[in-house]
Structure formats: C-alpha cells, structure tokens
C-alpha cells in the first residue's frame, strides 16, 4: 500500500478543467480526494465515479468558495468523514477579460470574490486545520508576467495570490507545511477556450516555444510534484508550467 493512501486532499473547482485533472492525478498518487464544485454536481459526480472505477477514493462536496460559511462547512465535512485534511489545492477560479476603462462593477466584484476572497477563505481554514506536514497549492497564472491588454483585473487577482502564497509559507513555520503556487500558461479548458476564435486560439498556442497549449494533465503533473514527496523542499515559490511562454 502506498504511503500516501490515507492522506486527504481537497481540490476546489474539481468538477471540470484543470481541477478535475488534478483530482484524477492525486487519486492515482494515492490521496483520498475531495472533489469540490460550485454548481455542476453532475460533472463532480462523474469525476468521483471515474476515480472510483480506476481504483481510487473520492467524494464530491459542494461549496461556493466565495462564501466563507460554505468553506467552513466543506472543511467540517471533510474533518467528520476523514478525520483531517493534508492537502489543499486552491484551483477554483474564474476569468473575465476587460480593459480597465470598460470594467464593470459586477465583473470586478465577481473576480475579487472568487479568485481572491475565495482563496483566502480556503487558505484560512487550511492554515488552522491542516495536519502537520501538509501542502497548500494555490492557483496563480502566467498572465501576471505576460502583461497583455484586457488581463489587468484577472492578473491582479492572481498577483494577490502570489503574494499571499509567499507570506503564508512563512506564517506556517514550524508545522512542516509547504505553500506554493502554480501559474499555468494558456491551458485547454473552458475557461481559456470560451469566446475565442480558432485563429486566436492557434495564435496563442504558438506563443510558447513548444508551440502548443497546455493540457490539464500538464498542470496536474506540476501539482502532483508539489504535493508529493519529491516536492518537499519547495516552499513559498511560484512555479510556472507554461511551456516557456514567459
Ligand atoms: P474551468 O472554468 O475549466 O473550471 C473552473 C472550475 O472552478 C469548475 O470546476 C467550477 O465549478 C469551479 N468554480 C468556479 N467558481 C467556483 C466557486 N465560486 N466555488 C467553487 N468552485 C468554483 O477553469 P480552469 O480549469 O481553466 O481553471 C482552473 C484554475 O486555473 C483557475 O484558478 C484559473 O484561473 C487557473 N488558470 C487557468 C488557465 C487556463 O488557461 N485555463 C491559465 C492560468 C491559470 P462548477 O463546474 O461547479 O462551475
């Protein structure tokens, strides 16, 4: 039996996209996985079923990360069912593109509520409750360094995550808990593909010297490294799985 079999990982936003790939990968690595989702229960159940069919262990758990009470309930449930939490993968996020001049109040509120406040809600519970030796992986983005027009509001939410990651790594001194961020480049999920023409997708795919989009599995491999035994000396860092785009 794998040494990690009893370890429990919460993956937020794991019903689709990168989060679903992370859930599959961590289950394969031997973690018991909590597949969090906001509204898409059917998709989350499919992830749980597929993990079980492959011999892994998972449950689904609804919680809107923007709602602090939901996040407390999520951690309470996991504690009741499994006795504790070892890993938090803070993947849930949304993207809205707009120039600063055209940014609406609603779009800005939603970005801050989910990407920034949502990550703080989960980090706060994890900081209080994670078992010693645990791991936190936050989700940033390579757009923080790419600096393309229309990305300011979204990139700003991710820059906030970079800063919080480095500070939290220091606050958790003495507990053997690492805190890192992954900052993917363009990755083929609904978040990236929705609303873009084939030409634009092709152009963005070619920006990386490896001349393709990232896949959710590429990003899951980076998360697997950070939460696994080989990642134990990486702490307070932002890792950019992006094919060399920046
Ligand atoms: P998707 O849009 O494909 O999936 C988003 C996931 O997040 C879904 O599972 C969704 O749940 C969940 N979610 C959204 N809002 C909430 C919420 N309020 N509470 C809980 N869960 C929520 O996104 P990606 O997989 O592409 O993105 C994952 C992360 O990676 C994000 O943080 C994103 O910013 C980041 N990223 C993505 C890149 C890309 O190119 N794709 C590049 C760089 C970073 P439901 O199904 O229930 O709606």
Could you explain how this protein is built, in words?
By secondary structure, the protein is an alpha/beta fold. The protein has a single domain, classed as Rossmann fold (3-Layer(aba) Sandwich), CATH 3.40.50. It is built from nine helices and seven strands. The protein has helices spanning 17-29, 41-53, 68-82, 105-129, 143-146, 152-171, 190-193, 198-205, 216-227, and strands at 8-11, 32-37, 57-62, 85-90, 130-139, 178-182, 238-239. Strands 3-2-1-4-5-6-7 form a seven-stranded parallel β-sheet, sandwiched between helices. Helix 1 (17-29) links the parallel strand 1 and strand 2 (32-37). The longest helix is centred in the middle third of the chain and has 25 residues, at 105-129. It is globular. The termini are far apart. 45% of the residues are buried. The model has no long low-confidence stretch (mean pLDDT 97). Bound molecules: NADPH dihydro-nicotinamide-adenine-dinucleotide phosphate. NADPH dihydro-nicotinamide-adenine-dinucleotide phosphate is lined by residues 12-19, 36-40, 43, 64-66, 91-95, 114, 118, 139, 141, 184, 186-187, 189-192.
């Amino acid at each position: 039996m794998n040494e990690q079999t009893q370890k429990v990982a919460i993956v937020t936003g794991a019903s689709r996209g990168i989060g679903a790939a992370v859930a599959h990968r961590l289950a394969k690595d031997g973690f018991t996985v909590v597949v969090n989702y906001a509204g898409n229960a059917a998709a989350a159940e499919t992830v749980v079923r597929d993990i079980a069919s492959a011999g892994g262990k998972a449950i689904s758990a609804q919680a809107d990360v923007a709602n602090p009470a939901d996040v407390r309930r999520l951690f309470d449930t996991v504690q009741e069912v499994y006795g504790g939490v070892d890993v938090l993968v803070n993947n849930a996020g949304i993207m809205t593109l707009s120039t600063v001049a055209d940014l609406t109040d609603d779009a800005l509120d939603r970005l801050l509520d989910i990407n920034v406040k949502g990550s703080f809600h989960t980090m706060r519970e994890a900081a209080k409750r994670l078992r010693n030796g645990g791991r936190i992986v936050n989700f940033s983005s390579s757009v923080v360094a790419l600096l393309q027009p229309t990305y300011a509001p979204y990139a700003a939410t991710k820059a906030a995550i970079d800063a919080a990651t480095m500070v939290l790594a220091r606050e958790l001194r003495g507990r053997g808990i690492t805190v890192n961020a992954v900052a993917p480049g363009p990755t083929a999920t609904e978040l990236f593909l929705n609303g873009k023409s084939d030409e634009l997708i092709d152009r963005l795919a070619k920006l990386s010297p490896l001349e393709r989009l990232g896949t959710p599995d590429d990003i899951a491999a980076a998360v697997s490294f950070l939460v696994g035994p080989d990642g134990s000396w990486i702490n307070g860092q932002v890792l950019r799985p992006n094919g060399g785009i920046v």
